[in-house]
Amino acid sequence: MGRTAWVETFLHQHKMFLPAAQRENVFNYNLAAFYYQTQAYDQAVELLQSVTFTDPYLDINGRIILLKIYYYQENYFSFYYFLDAFKIGLKRNRDVATPYRTAIHTFLGLFRRLAQLRERWEHQTKTKRRTNYDKLHDRIQNAPNCFDQRWLKGEIEKRKP
């Protein structure tokens, strides 16, 4: 809606209403999410790296925001490194419900393929691009139980050859 100044002011004005024990972490997470949405990626990364997550679901969402930022910045080294570490940590995390963990794993696998498609786009022939695009498009469309499938669909549509 374009009311970014209002949202940022709201976050700062209502910070004091958050529970004291979680105030800084919850505020920083939400401010980072705001910065991500407004494409202030460096500020979002800085805040997310300062958050100590106590809730496993917020932790997962924060990590996904970081992955998306690395993807948008075309920082593929950080993207792949962080994605692999995230997957290993998620496998070990028994505090997260199995269906949710499965949906995240599906998302991460498709996200990796999307990043690879984007990273190699300029170095492929039109035919190879089209083949890779079609394969990934079908995988995303037919993924059962996939976290943030709509975002993946939007990103793959941006790469339509």
* Helix and strand element order: HHHHHHHH
Termini, distance in Å? 30 Å
Low-pLDDT runs: none
Largest sheet: none
Radius of gyration: 17 Å
Structure in words:
With 161 residues, the protein is an all-alpha fold. 73% of the residues lie in helices and 0% in strands. The chain has 8 helices and no strands. It has helices at 4-13, 23-37, 41-50, 56-72, 76-92, 98-120, 126-141, 149-158. It is globular. The two termini are 30 Å apart. The model has no long low-confidence stretch (mean pLDDT 92).
Defining traits:
8 helices; 73% helix; mainly alpha; 161 residues
Brief synopsis:
The protein is 73% helix and 0% strand.
Helix and strand arrangement:
Blueprint: H1 4-13, H2 23-37, H3 41-50, H4 56-72, H5 76-92, H6 98-120, H7 126-141, H8 149-158
